[in-house]
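INTERNAL TRANSFER SHEET
From: sequence group
To: structure group
Subject: Cas10/Cmr2 second palm domain-containing protein

Please process the attached sequence and return the structure record in the designated field. Keep the field labels unchanged so the import script can parse them.
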Amino acid sequence: MRLVLFGTSGNQAYVFASNRLREAVGASYLISEATTSVVRDLGKDHEAEVLQCSSGSALVVVPTEGHARGLVAAVTEHAVRKAPGLQVLGVHMDIGAVPPSPDEIREIYRLWRWHASRSVGVAARWPRLPVVAACGSTDAPAAAWYSDSVPRRGTPSDAEVPRPLSAQVIAKRRARPAADRRMKALLDRTPAGKGLRLVGTAELFEDVEWVGVVHADANRLGQFFVDAAGLPNTQMGALSTAIQRCAENAFGEAVAQVAGLAKRTQELPVVPLVIGGDDLTALVDGRYALAFTTRYLTAFGEYAAADPVVRAAVHAIGNGALTVSAGVAVVKPHFPFSTAYQLAGELCDSAKSVAKEHRGSHALDVHVLLDSTFTDLERIRQGYQVVDGDGELSVTARPFLVPTRESATIPPDRDWTKLAERLTVVREMPVAADGRVVTRTQLHALRDELRRDVKRAERRLSDLKRRAVTEEDRAMLRALAGDSAGVRNGTGVLPALDLLELAEFAELEVSA
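Return from structure group:
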C-alpha cells in the first residue's frame, strides 16, 4: 500500500498576487478544489481511498506505487492546466497497512516539507524573455486579452474593455462564479444558513465603513488526526468529512447571526474566501465581525461535540474538546487586503498561543487598525505596554478565551463571555445627553489617556465617578472597571482600553 500526500504551497502569494477581491475569491476556490474534489474525482481512476482532504492538503491511500505515481501526475497536471500559478506537490511512500500509523503520517508530512523546500518557485514558469506585455493586474507576463463581461453593442464601458491579463489571473476570474455557486449551495445545506444570501464581492466595500478580516483555525487538528490514526477501527475519511461538516454548519450559524443583527436575509455583508476542513477566512462588515467570529467558534465546538464520529474520536484520544482559535483584523475598506489578511493570521497565531495554555477553550484575538504606522502584530502590541510609577503595565488583556463545557478556570480579564456583557453596556454610550456625564467624548479622551498617561486616566475616571448621578452613568463606569476598583486590576492589566476600542464593533446579540 502507498500513502499519498498532496499539498499546496505559497497559498498567500497566490491568493494575494493582486489586491482585487474577485481574484482572491477565485484563487481560494481553486486552492480548495485542487485538494478536495479534484483529488476525489481523479482518485477514482487510481483506486484511491481518501483519508483526509481539506483546502490545501489531502491524504489518500492507493494499492501500488504505479497507482501513486499516476494519481500524483494526474492531480498536478490538472493544477497546471486549470489553476496556473498554483503550486501543488504530491509525495508518496510505502506503508504497512490501512489506516497508516501515526509515525507513518508524521513521516510523509516530513517528506512533503523536504520536497517543498527544494521545489522551483512559480515565478520560474514565466520568464519575461522574449519581451511580452505585462499583466494588467499583477507583475506576471500577460497571456491573453480578457474581459469578465461580453461588451454590449455600441461603446463598451471601462469594465467591459478587454485587458492583457496573465494566465493565473484569467483562471482566478473564471473561477469566481463557480465559487459563488458553491457558497450558495453550502449555505443551503446547513441547518441555520438555508435561504440566506451573501453580498457580492464588489458591493461589500461600497456599503461598509470597516471590514473585519477573519481567519480561524482549529487548535492542534493535525495532531488530532495523527492520534486518531492510531486508534483501532478509525475511519479517517469519515472523520475528515465530519469535521468539514462541522466547519460548514458553524459557518452557517455565523452567517445566521449576521442576518439576525442586520435584520435581513439577503445581501448579507459576508464574503467567504476559505471554508475547508478546519480553516475559515472571510470578510465581514466590521460592525458584525466579532459576533460572526464568536458564533463560529462556539458553533464549531457544539457541532463537533454533537457529531458521533468526532465525539468518539475525541473521547478515545482524551482531548476533552475540539476547539478553534481566530484572529480578526478590523480595517478600513481600502486598506491593502493582503496586509490585513497577514495581520489576521498573526492574530490567530497569538490566540493559539493562549489556547495552548487553556485546553478546552476557544481563543480570539482582535485588533482595530486605527493607525496603520505599524501593521505587524509584534510592533502593534509593543504600543500597548505603558510605564508609570508602578512599573510596566499592559493596556490590553487580549487574546481572549471563549469558554466551553470543557474549559478549566479562565482568567477573568480574558473571559470573552464576561467581556461581551460589559461591551453591550459600553457600546450604548451617548454622544451627549442631559444629565449624563459619561459621554462618548469623555470615553474617547479616556481611551487616549490610557495609552499615554495612566495617572491622568485614573484621575478622569475618579472625577467621572464623583460626578455620576444617573444609574446609566454608574452602570457604564461599573462596566469599564469590571472586577477592579479603577482602570487597572491586580495583574498589571488595564482592561478598560479593550472595551473602549472594541465597543463600536461589538454588536453581539441578535435583535428580536
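Handover comment: The chain has a mean pLDDT of 87. The chain has three domains: 2-121, 189-382, 418-505.
Transfer complete.
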